[in-house]
Amino acid sequence: MAQATKSSLNELLVNLFDNVMDMEAKAVITEEYRDITNNDMHIIEAIGVDEPRNMSVIAHRLSVTVSTLTTNMNGLEKKGYIRKERSLNDKRVVYVTLTEKGRKAFYHHRDFHKKMIKAIVKDLREDEMEVLYRCLTNLNSFLRPEAEDR
Predict the structure, then answer these.
(1) What is the pLDDT of residues 93-140, one digit of tens each?
(2) How far apart are CA 28 and CA 24, in angstroms?
(3) CA 131 to CA 51: how far, in whole Å?
(4) In what order do the strands lie in the sheet containing 53-54?
């Protein structure tokens, strides 16, 4: 790959990251959700709508420590987005579920991501989507905290 192409690719990735973060914040943090941050929305996404998740699982999904997550969780609980309950079997374990308000925020955030994916793949053939998927998987592997060979 030519140096100019590599440089252009780097510039594109930097711009994409900045634009996605800005656009997501504007699209997701609407008047209804002005009391939380984009980071809070990602915590809500990590909690999910299925079954209660314990704090360790949520922290792992977000690549943060449980102590870091606890501060954010306390704010989300105070604002009515989540509910925390101690395990009946092990009082050290805290399970988190979304309240109705939290579930509404979850679906609001998910809808933004659905629209974004639809825009990304709208003109791609199946084989092109597979290549894009492989490229993004490689990028994700590189960006993961445990990646060693950079």
Answers:
(1) 999 999 999 999 999 999 999 999 999 999 999 999 999 999 999 988
(2) 6
(3) 33
(4) 53-54, 94-98, 82-86
Q: What is the pLDDT of residue 115?
A: 93
Amino acid identity for residue 37 in this structure: T
Q: Residue 101 burial (CB < 10 Å; 0-12/13-18/19+)?
A: middle
Identify the DSSP state of 89: S
Q: What does residue 79 show for φ and ψ, rounded to 5 degrees?
A: -85, -5
Coil/strand/helix, residue 34? coil
Measured distance CA(62)–CA(22) in Å, rounded: 19
Pull the structure tokens for residue 125. Answer: 């053939």
Q: Characterise 12 by phi-psi region: left (phi > 0), alpha (psi -120 to 50), beta (else).
A: alpha
Of 39, 124, 107, the C-alpha closest to 75 is 39
Q: How far apart are the first and last CA of the chain?
A: 18
140 against 60, higher pLDDT: 60
Tokens (6 digits) for 43: 């915590």
